[in-house]
Amino acid sequence: MNLVDRFLKYVSFDTQSDEETNMTPSTPGQMVFARHLREELEHMGLEDISLDENGYLMATLPANIPADEAEAVPTVGFIAHLDTSPDMSGRHVSPRIVQNYDGGDIVLNKETGVVLSPAEFPELTRYVGQDLIVTDGTTLLGADDKAGIAEIISAVDYLKNHPEIRHGRIRIAFNPDEEIGLGAHKFDVGHFGADFAYTMDGGEIGEIEYENFNAAVAKVTFTGRNVHPGYAKHKMVNSMRIANQFVIMLPRWETPEHTEGYEGFYHLTAMEGSVEKSVLTYIIRDHDRDRFERRKKELEHLARKINKEFPDCCSIEIKDQYFNMREKIEPVKYIIDIAEEAMRNADVTPVIVPIRGGTDGAQLSFKGLPCPNLFAGGLNFHGRYEFVPIPSMEAAANTIVEIARIVAERKF
Question: So what's the pLDDT on residue 357?
């Protein structure tokens, strides 16, 4: 089975995750997919294959160099996630291949008028002349991260069938629930046994990501007092109005819709309320650790200001979610050098970009497994306009092969 056939098969599995189930994996389709992959890895002849009750699938491609040499070669890992985003349905995905894309509009669904157009998605123009895999306009595609899975398995299959390419021990893993932030929570780093790894979960061709947001979630609760509005003067305390006052106290321009690159933000993700009680939920993001800590303190400061005007009205709970992996990657920066060299060998121009979000690799890095993120090739993730250029997937698989070769040759 070739790379494209693998990908088209994989997207047929419904693996949309669900943060409401409180289970791991959060949806049964992820385990169905994991069992299918386990059978494929067994058929390929990989070793040390394990699939635990939480849906974490791991396997080994043994070193093909003499044992005395292999001992000096680090074990490198490659990781991708089984689930697709809850943002849009991943059931009954019906992809098609647009051959030799001509640079114009792509009609995804004639009946509903869904069109993938370079006027709205100018990045399409970078892929003129290439074969693209697109959706039928009714679901997401699932390149995030089934492209990564297909690339890893195809690369390992290639290495197994080309013993002239020397490599050390290689570990691969596919985990559930990355899209709901739980992909690394039950990942057994010790059992995985890699010295460092790469998640194949990035976007456009050439991307290398080893900086991500520091992240926290804040729940701000406002307690009011309800009195009949006809007799409420100096008695009623309307928690919704106070919550609105809190919202406008934050900097207007420090929100996702006004920031890019390394700029952090406060993002109001949910609000619910009545006169008696209102709750605001924020996520707090910043690449810089000091600014991140100041953002948390600013929310606490505003809560105190509210309480000066409305005593004991406002309470706030802030929980850290993940931290910037850069501090864990910089001491082993050679793993970025290896990725860059591998990309150049695969005729890919490396592009180092910060992640404006999180990744399993960030959490894994803090669990002791340095794990930057590399491109899987897809664009417009999580929606009906998602697409992936086939040459980008091929380049990602070639990059994996080159990493394996370079690691075996490099002196550590």
Answer: 81
